[in-house]
């Protein structure tokens, strides 16, 4: 295409310069009669020539002025555009906010993060090096204040706990699964959150309740050991994550609904809850709500998943309600069966029992079936993922380090012997077991971030302003990676938590000081932290006492590479072989089954 041809093929005529137009205009011959004397004509011609010269000089000057005005206009427009860009893209350092990377208009740093195609935690690590321990990011329409320093995190969550205790606005997808923020984790700081949390603590993690649930843990651990034996006998290896998830989830289902259900249904529930957690992870419309109409398929998939969730759990809610009303029939074990569901807890002993008559502030009525399913899902999801992930990482290190495994086995046997049931009181008297669990949480925290927080009002942190509408993200991985706090932080060494070690007096709730925070800190700390740790300790002690753990035949050592699946998990799930520690493989709880492995 010629440079002087239009897109439609027509010829393009370059604009005539202003000076040429003026020149043509002033050179037009004057009108005069044929009787004009020749001398006058000559004189007039000389005057005209002089006029033309003057006019052309004037026109040239005007042309230069016009050209200069055009230049000034372009420069002014460029300056204004730059100022607008800077104002729109300015991330931090303005209005007292922490500093941060410059972004693009409207989208801020959102696409800069997306285009890097790597986990957000690695982006945060790089930005921390450049902007310091607290910085600002503009993610679409959301302002993120990212905090990475232990002292600043402790200041925000513990010292200024009430000011940072709320949650940011949720996306339509998360609101669907939380039924309008009707969960302990998602409720904004206020009366609803207090009512839900108070009920949770009283019904699940109060000392009388924890003691009352001991039979559930004993039953679940016995079933867990039998499954491990059977799977190893059939395949020559056991899948650690899958088996631990199933066992922990069975405990929490029984706590929530007072019911024992088949393993197949537990697996179905566990799979649905895992899908829900992945569905509610942050996505593009969360940061740019104006794009929501473009993601109708995603919202439709969320609604379908919600129907699956209700389909799995609503029958348990209905069966429990009918059981409390006196319905059902006795089975051979003396337990009541309602709608095919075996009830094993007396009325009033299941978590859902306490929710039937609860009227939390702000809801205007008793909780409906949707809310009951959601609140029980919260218990099962959070408890299953955190505990199972920690168990897999701990067992990986025990497979890699036979010396630590033998030392832990020696402590367990010295306290309870080889056959007695391991109780809650027993694990409290096992300092090396506790050190193994703490070091696992330090080296492999469940997540590199805690759940998003929001300030309840405009406040300050580290000398910077934190607006009430900002999302405050606490990057906690650096807390346990900091070599100034933890020498040789990449090493997994339980001895650091024994007397004389640098972590001996570490408080994992971070109340006194923040050196690690696997369960969060402050007012929004996970209320079931102690229960989760108890489940991990009991299962770990039983598994190590029953078996010696080694890599499967023909396979190398486990791969410690991590990946993200709501929690930080092993990229290649742990497979391990079992070596029976006692001839015959009899269970400490009196059960049996499966072929014993040979050394």
Summarize the structure in words.
- GO terms for molecular function: heme binding; iron ion binding; linoleic acid epoxygenase activity; oxidoreductase activity, acting on paired donors, with incorporation or reduction of molecular oxygen, NAD(P)H as one donor, and incorporation of one atom of oxygen.
- Pfam families: p450.
- This is Cytochrome P450.
- Its cofactor is heme.
- With 599 residues, the chain is α+β, with helices and mostly antiparallel strands.
- The protein folds into two domains: 18-28 and 43-89; 154-580, Cytochrome P450 (Cytochrome p450).
- It has helices at residues 18-26, 38-89, 110-116, 120-131, 150-159, 172-178, 191-205, 207-212, 214-235, 240-257, 263-279, 284-287, 296-324, 351-356, 369-400, 402-416, 424-428, 431-443, 477-481, 529-546; strands spanning 134-139, 142-147, 238-239, 259-260, 329-330, 336-338, 341-343, 453-454, 459-461, 464-466, 471-474, 547-550, 562-565, 567-570, 575-580.
- Strands 1-2-11-8 form a four-stranded mixed beta sheet, with helices on one face. A four-stranded antiparallel beta sheet has the order 4-7-6-5. It has a three-stranded antiparallel beta sheet with strand order 3-15-12.
- The termini are far apart.
